[in-house]
Automatic annotation (TrEMBL):
The lineage of its organism: Bacteria, Bacillati, Actinomycetota, Actinomycetes, Kitasatosporales. InterPro entries: MFS, MFS_dom, MFS_trans_sf. It holds the Pfam family MFS_1. GO terms for cellular component: plasma membrane. It is a multi-pass membrane protein. Residues 14-485 form the Major facilitator superfamily (MFS) profile domain. Keywords: Antibiotic resistance, Membrane, Transmembrane, Transmembrane helix. The keyword NADP does not apply. It is found in: Cell membrane. The keyword Plastid does not apply. GO terms for biological process: response to antibiotic. It comes from Streptomyces lasalocidi. It comes from the Bacteria. This is MFS transporter. GO terms for molecular function: transmembrane transporter activity.
Amino acid sequence: MPDVRLASPQGRWILLTTVLGSSMALLDSTVVNVALPRIGQDLDADLAALQWTVNAYMVTLAGLILLGGSLGDRYGRRKVFVIGVVWFAAASLLCGLAPNAGVLVAARALQGAGGALLTPGSLALIQASFHPDDRGRAVGLWSGFGGIGAAVGPFLGGWLVDGPGWRWVFLLNVPLALLCAPIAVRHVPESDARSGARGAGVLDAEAVDAGALGAKTPGRAPRGHFDVLGAALGALALALVTYALIEAPGGSLFVGPVAVAGVAAGVAFVVVERRRPEPMMPPDIFASRQFTAVNLVTLCVYAAFGGFFFLSAVQLQVVAGYSALGAGTALLPTTVLMLLLSARSGELAERIGPRLPLTVGPLLCAAGMLLMLRVGEDARYLTDVLPAVLVLGLGMVSLVAPLTATVLASVDVSRAGLASGINNAAARAAGLVAVAALPLVTGMGPEAYRSAPAFDHAFDRAMAVCAGVLVVGAVLAWATVRRPAPGCRKPECRRHGSVVAPPLEGGRRG
């Protein structure tokens, strides 16, 4: 049993290194959007290249995050976490030195692969290291400090873009990694599925027993094989579909065959997962109607969020004339509201049930996006931008905590970590598809972000589309979500600040 106490020097070192690690990924998810217009100008990149700058990272992260969590169980959670930190930093360095858009996109894909090791690994170390009496508080502190990192991201990113330049948005990760990795090696104890430290990953020992990766139990070496084929097919399907959507406006002859290949890869992924004895994403977990329903709501909600945060940072700079710092700061209230109120929202949902919050939340977010239609040339922050951002933030507060709680409550407690990992991956996949599809749906040309009138017109249509998707999510929630059974698993991450995905939760606590 893990026995590190939070108040001990080692406990504080563990908390510091996990916060630093998760903050690297959270910062990256919020700062890059603010830098996109300047990246396009400096690298002479078209809109498709900017889409790929966001989506290359999301494709590998969403496709590999489930596998990344299980690698720590097999080979050591500290080892995999440190590898993720170093990998992420090396890819960030390559991003910062990229001479052209092609190299930047490739580096972003590598960065996402590092993030797939790093993101679940930070929570895994906390779950595996701390004494059970301190674990809940440690997770809460990790989640809260990580949320602060997410909140600082847009402000810091804007300051860097306007100051030393957009490359420092990526180079910033290097000194963070140089601080994080040595602390982890020196102060964090190693653990894996054989050590008896349970509940320490997106796919923990109990989740694997339930069919995630094959049978293994604490104290016994895991047997079976990783579902590398499933992970590869999932990532390939996302990459091919994303390529088809992004390149479709150019009329390339390859778009049709690539789209068909992407759908075929998706079908192959489902077939492989159904037939493998040790699937990465066990199909039987979707036998829970509540789990399936809340993931459909997740797809709608995070597709809209992904599209909004990709386009709004550009809209504020290209059309409204804001600086990068001004654009980043303008969107800050959404994260601040989530940090301040998400815990109370979760408590309210526990009393009244998740159905109403998961219905009202998306509707509030839809209203916030429709209010963004007021943001045009010379938009005033207090009268045009802030009302939209506040309404959107209140909607996110209303739905994110109940969403996570409903996911965890919809499956057996032994599969809570797996359920959270699937839900997190679904949210990221929805966001990347939205970033790829919205310019196509709204008629944005390759040079749209260089023309304020053209981008403004397409942005208005995009906000209407996002609002419509959120309304669909609200209707789904009202029609399908029900109150969980008493005594079900409740989230440990009470405070959450990320706008790109719901919080990850570990498995059963030992």
